[in-house]
Design goal:
By secondary structure, the protein is mainly alpha-helical. The chain has 2 domains: 13-182 and 210-360, no CATH class; 378-625, 3-Layer(aba) Sandwich (Rossmann fold). The chain contains 26 helices and 6 strands. The chain has a 6-stranded parallel sheet with strand order 1-3-2-4-5-6, with helices on both faces. Helix 4 crosses helix 5. Keywords: Acyltransferase, Membrane, Transferase, Transmembrane, Transmembrane helix. It comes from Hymenobacter polaris.
Length: 626
């Protein structure tokens, strides 16, 4: 039996193979296959392919004077919507029975944004909040790229139509597209530095990747008869493999490194060389055929496993991959391949679905399924938000992206009759402020607070996000401490050390050591409070499920990264490091059923009391406070 397929006239085997490679990269990345940590670049490959295909479809229609926006969008609708709508309906139905009401409403907001192709905007907005739904447990997270593509589908034809009516020279037309693409690349690089979340999710900073595909179409054929065509194609495939192998999430994305998979895909497309043997293997072409459905289903399968506390292992990963392939094949065969003559039937089906999803994203529709005590615990973060704001001193001494308010006069007010203790850090420092004030002897100690969400409290910047509120930390090091070094008696530094995305442990450790050295030179006592644990889904959800199903909570819900970071810092810092991470068992609820955490990594007042007790009982602090 042949393992390659018989050539089909006009069919681009290389593009179908690129789809297969892209979806495998994304799947391996999401399933945390370590040696392919750069698999996320598969999305960028998809973007270039979409840009190429849309440019070909639109320009060929314009050249034949038969371009119809209605027909164009209708075809895109029939191609994209059925499988996506099926996914949304199935997941919405299943989550109705298993998700607590607040989790379900959050899930339905994502479902609504996905089916209306606005999920990239939703995730950009929610990523600015530290108490936003967890990305890794958002079952529709992966639809952000579909939303970007759909928005591109809507705007791109208008640009090409405008250019076609104003520029007659093909050469000038191509040069203009290239100039426009370069401009968008520059915009993306600037935005990535200052507004990385926006740059990652939004069309203006992603469209250049699709424009690269457009350039590939306009330059198509120039290398087909060239003896270097096969070499260029192989170079592209090799570059993609190296991207999957060598790239990782410590790199700013999109950024300069994003050019690598984009250029690699561009080279393969313009080479248009089918003599590369492996691209015609049946397995590769089959993967390319089901790539869209496989992309849709692989992530929900992983998230559902996470939600039920299933610890990932090699065997389980293989099982989930097999399930993903089966669901992808079923979706491709029985949904994606359905021949729909007119998009109006899809629009008619979409309207009631969107209405129902919108209603379920705001109304309590599934309360009756759960016990009262389970609901009380699971909904704690929603019903007790005022307690959280008070605990963190939010809007006064804790600045967030959504509210950058910070009162220097109140938060950094020196008391010359007491020992001044400075709490310095991010939200993980802010969460301890109320408990520290409660437990410290107010007749002897004055607590100062300088906390800014998402900012590592090191003397030098080690991350680029949220530069606006970094100024609070900079002010402490550059102005406040130099002016009051004789009046500051102790500095407590803490943060979500493992939560700094895109930053290596060595860089964080170096920043901490530099900060310790800074305070030591000024004869200020300093302690570093360690990494607390975090969970794969919100703690209240786990505790609520415990009440509901009487299941035993275990460490399957814990993230490993926090323990790895804690061990790393403990090993490399001296006695000034205080370990607080829970080493033994899943923390119980308080006597009045207050959960240990608000979400997956921020402790409640009850949890903060437990941590502060550990801090005050540590030899590094006992001597000072006593």
């Amino acid at each position: 039996m042949k393992n390659t397929i018989t050539p089909k006239t006009g069919f681009r085997y290389d593009i179908n193979a690129l789809r297969a490679i892209a979806v495998l990269g994304v799947l391996f990345f999401h399933y945390k296959v370590d040696f392919l940590a750069g698999g996320f670049a598969g999305v960028d490959i998809f973007f270039v392919i979409s840009g190429y295909l849309m440019t070909r479809i639109i320009i060929q229609s314009i050249n034949h004077n038969n371009f119809s926006f209605k027909d164009y969008i209708g075809k895109r609708t029939r191609r994209i919507v059925p499988a996506l709508l099926c996914l949304v309906i199935v997941i919405s139905t299943l989550s109705f029975f298993f998700y607590f009401p607040e989790d379900y409403k959050t899930n339905q907001k994502s479902a609504l944004a996905s089916i209306t192709f606005l999920s990239n905007i939703l995730y950009w907005q929610s990523s600015n909040s530290y108490f936003a739904p967890l990305s890794d447990t958002n079952i529709f997270l992966h639809t952000w790229s579909l939303s970007v593509e759909w928005q591109f589908y809507l705007i791109y034809p208008l640009i090409l139509l405008l250019l076609a009516n104003t520029i007659r020279s093909k050469k000038i037309y191509l040069y203009f597209i290239i100039f426009f693409t370069i401009s968008l690349i520059i915009l993306s690089l600037i935005a990535t530095t200052y507004k990385n979340n926006a740059a990652f999710y939004l069309l203006p900073t992603r469209s250049w990747e699709m424009m690269f595909g457009g350039i590939a179409f306009l330059a198509e054929g120039k290398l087909k008869e060239n003896k270097w065509g096969k070499f260029i194609a192989y170079t592209g495939y090799l570059l993609i493999f190296l991207c999957f192998l060598l790239l990782d999430t410590t790199m700013l994305w999109p950024g300069l490194y994003t050019l690598l998979p984009v250029i690699a895909t561009f080279l393969i497309i313009i080479a248009n060389n089918d003599s590369v043997r492996f691209i015609k293997y049946r397995a590769i072409q089959f993967l390319g055929e089901i790539s869209y459905s496989l992309y849709l289903w692989h992530w929900p399968v992983y998230v559902i496993a996470q939600y039920f506390g299933i610890k990932m292992s090699l065997k389980l990963t293989l099982l989930l991959v097999i399930i993903s392939f089966l669901l992808g094949y079923i979706s491709y065969t029985y949904v994606e391949n359905i021949k729909i003559k007119s998009a109006k039937w899809l629009y008619a089906a979409l309207l009631p679905c969107i209405t129902l999803i919108a209603y379920s994203s705001y109304a309590d529709t599934n309360n009756f399924i759960f016990k009262a005590k389970s609901l009380e615990v699971a909904n704690y973060a929603t019903t007790q938000q005022h307690k959280r704001d008070k605990q963190f001193n939010a809007g006064i001494c804790f600045a967030e992206v959504k509210d950058e308010s910070y009162d220097t006069n109140k938060c950094l007010c020196i008391n010359k009759r007491k020992k001044n203790v400075l709490l310095l850090g991010d939200s993980h420092a802010a969460q301890l402020s109320e408990s520290l004030r409660k437990n410290l002897d107010s007749t002897k100690f004055n607590l100062l607070q300088a906390t800014a969400g998402g900012i590592l409290p090191t003397i030098k910047k080690v991350n680029n996000e949220r530069l606006a509120i970094r100024k609070i930390i900079d002010y402490v090091y550059e102005d406040f401490i130099p002016s009051h070094s004789n009046e500051i008696h102790l500095v407590i530094i803490t943060a979500h050390w493992s939560g700094a995305k895109g930053i290596k442990r060595e860089t964080i450790l170096h920043g901490i050591k530099e900060s310790i050295s800074y305070f030591n030179k000024k004869n200020i006592n300093v302690i570093v409070v360690g990494q607390s644990e975090s969970y794969v889904i919100p703690y209240p959800t786990i505790a609520g499920r415990n009440f509901q199903y009487k299941i035993q909570i275990n460490h399957n819900y814990l993230n490993d990264e926090e323990y790895l970071m804690d061990n790393y810092l403990l090993k490399n810092l001296d006695s000034s490091y205080i370990r607080i991470i829970n080493q033994t068992s899943f923390p119980a609820l308080s006597a009045n059923n207050e959960p240990y955490m608000w979400d997956n990594n921020h402790v409640t007042g009850y949890g903060a009391d437990l941590i502060v007790n550990k801090i005050l009982a540590n030899p590094a602090t006992t001597k000072f406070f006593n």
